[in-house]
């Protein structure tokens, strides 16, 4: 198809009318309320239910809630989570929970923020928080380890405290879930 | 099923309204013929009855009650003839409570023998209700700590709770708590809370291992599994109790909290710690072995294996494994070049001046090709005997997994190590100038390091470093059995195959690959290209293996004449 170029008139070839109408738009916005957000100095306040980066949490008594059951590692679609289980050495600090991860890594370059880890977690130990802009200088830096995840995750108020109640119940019956010499 | 079962007479019964014929007698845990039970009959008909305490290789206890089923028997008239319905079918009297005829009364499937004309209802509403009730009662004091339980994923309690249990608990009282970390012995940790008192472990250690170490103490809700006071549960078969424990009560200290079972890839393999060749499953993840478990084979190990063999896998992941082509004379840096150099060295050796020391830890296929190389070079060959202590159950005194394979392939005489002294003398006197060693440290078997240094050519293949590998002119890194496939012949002549669970590391290759390559470079006609092909070719040449093929070996192997 051949599109015939329209010949511009003398008035149009001056370009002044076009410039004037452009400035009119600029001037109109100049006096209006500003809509540009100064990202990254200013940030969105994300709505509740937003799925940001997954972090680990502690309960109000400072216990790492993760028990290293590895269900999140199993369910994670991009295989971003890698957990090192504690192994057979008795961990005295874990008390009657017996298990906690030796290492817990999330590769944030792989994570797709889908939230399946939070959904599958039987201990409510991992939550998708509100962080969406994660940056780092290297790929290695983007693999968050247990320490970093716990620091970012903070405290999650646990209304049930299942393990503490189990230990208390056992102690009331004078059976001790962890042998005394190991406490 | 054993042959005996097919010979005995059959009984017609009905399972879920379906007519089936099952043998009247079936072998029990010791292999003796006993009347067929309802559970066995249902298994024959392909209907699974859930159970905990029943194990086909253990005496029947009948204490878990999980296999309760509703059933009925034909009604008999006063003349001892079956009463018939109007349509001519026999009238069935369903089992009911004697004092409450409207209520069905189940019987445990594992210990109730079938009778002609019997009807079993493994899926009737009454049976389902009984199962639900039994599960509810088993779960009363169960801690439900699946997230931290190693059994999760292969737990019968978990499975049956999902299939037959209720979604919510009606139990509002406090659960009875029992000790959670009971140290039973050097390899076993017991969690008493999870135990459902099925007594499989008690029966195993009493009746199979012959060490009456476990028992139940206390009563009612406080009933607890315990080891006999003042002694350890430390016989050589303790870890089998971990396998047969249907819940997570008995845990292996070795595997405890190491890896969740659903990540493990399972490969059918063999234990290589002695000549018995117990069938095992290698569980691995990301090229790391996490555990070995016995695999059922009635011709070899039933369902068991010894602790020593089970825990003998850690060397596979050792840091100092030989993974690089090496040796003091190696010039090339690839296998192709290395194999050419070795073949060149062997070709220039005069016949009669070469000796080969093989290992009875090598597979039949490797030994077969090694023997071919020996014949081609006119070489003397032998392998090294390894004798230890045996026991009455599974441990063999022969610590080589493939002594009989070495004999069959002709790499050694009927007595392993007969020619070793002769080879040593030959090296000392200078009549043997070239030595090929596979998987053995000959410096510990009469050929000293000083003698090895006198050789013109020393080719060594091994997986872990030792004195011999350090002196090698050419060092060819090989594979652990878990990293390759092949077959072994056990002390009783059972020929069994094992499959590859892990990838070889770095340069290391299965020995059979470079043996075939070497043989080709030495001018032999192109040998088979695979392990399977090697086996099939070998079976055609060795009379004892006549008629066998790799695929006909199956999972449990075949018995050969030795």
Shape of chain B: elongated
- Runs of chain A in which pLDDT lies below 50 for 5 or more consecutive residues are none
Overall average pLDDT of chain B: 93
β-strand percent of chain B reads: 15-25%
CATH architecture grouping of the largest domain in chain B: 3-Layer(aba) Sandwich
Rg over alpha carbons of chain B? 29 Å
Note the main sheet of chain A. Answer: 3 strands, antiparallel
Number of helices of chain B: 15
Largest sheet of chain B: 6 strands, mixed
Measured by residues with Cβ under 8 Å of the partner chain's Cβ, the largest interface is:
A-B, 29 and 26 residues
Task: Spell out the key features of this protein.
heterodimer, A: 183 residues, 5 strands, elongated, B: 562 residues, alpha+beta, Ubiquitin-like (UB roll), Alpha-Beta Plaits, 3 domains, 6-stranded mixed sheet, 5-stranded parallel sheet, 15 helices
Structure description:
The complex is a heterodimer of chains A (183) and B (562). Chain A has 183 residues and is of the alpha+beta class. Chain A contains six helices and five strands; from the N terminus they run H-H-E-H-E-E-H-E-E-H-H. Helix content of chain A is 26%, strand content 9%. Chain A has a three-stranded antiparallel β-sheet. A two-stranded antiparallel sheet of chain A has the order 1-4. The longest helix of chain A has 15 residues, at 16-30. The mean pLDDT of chain A is 91. Chain B is of the alpha+beta class. Chain B has three domains: 3-137, Ubiquitin-like (UB roll), CATH 3.10.20.740; 165-317, Alpha-Beta Plaits (2-Layer Sandwich); 335-559, Rossmann fold, CATH 3.40.50. Chain B is built from 15 helices and 26 strands. In chain B, helix 3 packs across helix 4 (156-164), helix 9 packs parallel to helix 10 and helix 9 (364-377) runs parallel beside helix 14. The longest helix of chain B is centred in the first third of the chain and has 14 residues, at 125-138. The relative contact order of chain B is 0.09. The model of chain B has no long low-confidence stretch (mean pLDDT 93). Classes of the chains: A alpha+beta (183), B alpha+beta (562). Chains A and B meet through helix 3 and helix 6 of A and loops of B.
């Amino acid at each position: 198809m051949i599109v015939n170029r329209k010949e511009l008139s003398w008035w149009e070839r001056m370009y002044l009318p076009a410039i004037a109408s452009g400035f009119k738009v600029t001037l109109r916005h100049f006096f209006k309320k500003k809509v540009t957000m100064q990202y990254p100095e200013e940030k969105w306040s994300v709505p509740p239910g937003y799925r940001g980066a997954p972090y680990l949490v502690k309960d109000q008594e400072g216990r790492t809630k993760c028990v290293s059951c590895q269900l999140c590692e199993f369910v994670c679609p991009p295989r971003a989570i890698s957990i090192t289980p504690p192994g057979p050495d008795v961990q005295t600090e874990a008390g009657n929970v017996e298990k906690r991860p030796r290492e817990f890594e999330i590769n944030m370059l792989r994570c797709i923020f889908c939230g399946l880890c939070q959904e599958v977690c039987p201990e409510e130990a991992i939550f998708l928080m509100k962080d969406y802009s994660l940056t780092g200088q290297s790929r290695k830096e983007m693999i968050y380890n247990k320490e970093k995840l716990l620091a970012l995750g903070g405290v999650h108020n646990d209304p049930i405290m299942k393990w503490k109640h189990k230990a208390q119940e056992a102690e009331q019956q004078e059976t001790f879930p962890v042998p005394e010499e190991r406490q | 099923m054993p042959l005996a079962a097919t010979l005995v007479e059959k009984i017609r019964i009905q399972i879920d309204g379906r007519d089936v014929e099952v043998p009247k007698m079936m072998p029990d845990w010791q292999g003796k013929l006993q009347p067929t039970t309802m559970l066995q009959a249902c298994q024959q008909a392909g209907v699974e009855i859930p159970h905990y305490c029943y194990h086909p290789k253990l005496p029947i206890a009948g204490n878990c009650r999980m296999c309760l089923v509703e059933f009925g028997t034909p009604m008999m008239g006063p003349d001892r003839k079956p009463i018939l319905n109007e349509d001519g079918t026999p009238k069935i009297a369903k089992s009911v409570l004697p004092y409450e005829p409207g209520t069905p009364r189940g019987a445990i499937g594992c210990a109730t023998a079938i009778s002609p004309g019997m009807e079993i209802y493994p899926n009737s509403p009454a049976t389902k209700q009984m199962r639900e009730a039994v599960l509810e009662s088993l779960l009363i004091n169960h801690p439900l700590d699946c997230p931290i339980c190693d059994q999760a994923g292969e737990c019968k309690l978990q499975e049956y709770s999902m299939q037959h249990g209720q979604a919510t608990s009606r139990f509002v009282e406090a659960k009875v708590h029992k000790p959670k970390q009971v140290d039973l012995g050097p390899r076993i940790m017991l969690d008493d809370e999870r135990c459902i008192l099925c007594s499989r472990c008690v029966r195993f250690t009493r009746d199979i291992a012959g060490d009456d170490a476990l028992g139940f103490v206390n009563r009612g809700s406080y009933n607890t599994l315990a080891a006999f006071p003042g002694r350890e549960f430390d016989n050589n078969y303790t870890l089998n109790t971990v396998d047969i424990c249907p819940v997570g009560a008995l845990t292996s200290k070795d595997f405890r909290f190491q890896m969740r079972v659903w990540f493990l890839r399972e490969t059918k393999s063999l234990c290589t710690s002695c000549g018995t060749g117990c069938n095992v499953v290698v569980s691995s993840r990301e090229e790391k072995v996490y555990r070995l478990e016995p695999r059922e084979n009635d011709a070899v190990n039933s369902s068991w294996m010894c602790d020593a063999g089970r825990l003998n896998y850690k060397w596979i992941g050792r840091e100092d494994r030989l993974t690089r082509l090496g040796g003091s004379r190696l010039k090339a840096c690839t296998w192709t070049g290395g194999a050419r150099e070795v073949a060149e060295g062997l070709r220039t050796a005069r016949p009669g001046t070469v000796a080969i020391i093989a290992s009875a830890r090598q597979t039949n296929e490797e030994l077969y090709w090694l023997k071919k190389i020996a014949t081609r070079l006119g070489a003397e060959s032998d392998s090294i005997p390894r004798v230890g202590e045996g026991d009455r159950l599974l441990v063999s005194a022969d610590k080589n997994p493939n002594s009989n394979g070495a004999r069959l392939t002709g790499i050694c005489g009927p007595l392993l190590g007969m020619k070793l002294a002769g080879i040593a003398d030959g090296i000392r006197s200078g009549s043997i100038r070239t030595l090929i060693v596979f998987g053995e440290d000959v410096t510990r078997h009469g050929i000293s390091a000083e003698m090895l240094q006198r050789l013109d050519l020393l080719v060594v293949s091994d997986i872990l470093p030792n004195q011999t590998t350090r002196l090698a002119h050419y060092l060819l890194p090989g594979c652990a059995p878990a990293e390759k496939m092949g077959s072994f012949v056990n002390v009783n002549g059972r020929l069994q195959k094992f499959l590859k669970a892990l990838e070889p590391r770095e340069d290391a290759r299965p020995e059979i690959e470079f043996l075939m390559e070497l043989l080709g470079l030495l001018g032999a006609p192109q040998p088979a290209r695979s392990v399977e092909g090697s086996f099939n070719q070998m079976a055609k040449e060795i009379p004892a293996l006549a008629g066998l093929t790799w695929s006909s070996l199956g999972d449990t192997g075949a018995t050969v004449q030795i």
